[in-house]
Amino acid sequence: MSLAEILQELSKLSGDERSVVLRRLRELEDRGGALVLNESAGYMVQGTRTRPSSLDHPAPKPDLSPVITAKLRELAALKPGWDEEDALPIDPKAIEETAHVIARLSSSRDFQNPQLVPTFDGFLQVEWHNATRSLEFESTPRGWSVLGVDSVNSPSPKYYKAATPFKMAEALEPFYVWFATHGLTWPSQ
Q1: Cα–Cα distance, 135 to 148 (Å, whole number)
Q2: How does DSSP assign 48-70, residue by residue?
Q3: If phi over 0 gives left and psi between -120 and 50 gives alpha, with beta otherwise, what is residue 18?
Q4: 92 and 170 inside one domain
Q5: Within a 13 Å sphere around the CA of 84, how many CA atoms are in the beta-carbon half?
Q6: Which residues are paired to 45 by β-bridges?
Q7: Is-above-0.85 flag for pTM?
Q8: Residue 88 CB: number of other CB atoms within 10 A?
Q9: Are 84 and 170 in the same domain?
Q10: Side-chain-side CA neighbours of residue 166 (13 Å)
Q11: Which of 38, 105, 143, 147 has a C-alpha 20 to 30 A away from that of 181?
């Protein structure tokens, strides 16, 4: 989506929705992001980008199943307050990163489509569950939070945690292999 298309879509939003998007853009700017908006000038870009962004160089579209593609579109369309309270719309970066992770993992033997769950703070959780294990990847502002639960041969489940930055989908593969193949040890980082 071009910058002009983004600005056009922004102008279609209600005041509350627009406020949420602007707040997100300001947060991006506070973290060294690239866009500066001038609300009084009709949300026109008034500065230059200080570093390349995905708007400058669109990422290649990952190869995803129609089911996953449809679910990601549905999640991307969530409006502010989708939970009938204060939930934020899903961050486009979370959608993009989730698509890349799923595309990378889908080449694994015996890949199962995950459940995709929105979080109230505008991110996504990617989940797999079977009779003895669960694996969850949650997108966060800092990257991926990983949780594994193992109840194989144990009356009480064992919980494992890890974290990886975004743009490192390959770092998540060992966790999926642990889940799918019933690996004996939790991958270490």
Answers
A1: 5
A2: --SS--TTTSPPPPP---HHHHH
A3: alpha
A4: yes
A5: 0
A6: 37
A7: no
A8: 21
A9: yes
A10: 16
A11: 143
What the block records as the tokens of 137 is 């990847």
161 and 76 in a common domain: yes
**Residue 77 and residue 126 in one domain:** yes
> Which domain, by its residues, includes 185?
59-189
Per-residue pLDDT of the chain (189 residues; tens, 9 = 90+): 455 556 666 666 766 666 666 666 655 555 444 443 433 333 333 333 333 333 333 444 567 889 999 999 999 999 999 999 999 999 999 999 999 999 999 987 789 999 999 999 999 999 999 999 999 999 999 999 999 999 887 789 999 999 999 888 889 999 999 999 888 899 975
Return the amino acid letter for 18: R
Q: How far apart are CA 43 and CA 143, in angstroms?
A: 29
Look up residue 135 and give its two tokens.
């694996």
- Dihedral sign for Cα 163, 122, 111, 184, please: positive
Give DSSP secondary structure letters for 95-158.
Answer: HHHHHHHHHHHTTSTT--PPEEEE-TTS-EEEEEE-SSEEEEEEEETTEEEEEEEE-TT-SS-E
85 plus 105 within the same structural domain: yes
Give yes or no: residues 50 and 122 share one domain.
no
Rounded CA separation 48/14 (Å): 27
Domain count, the chain: 2
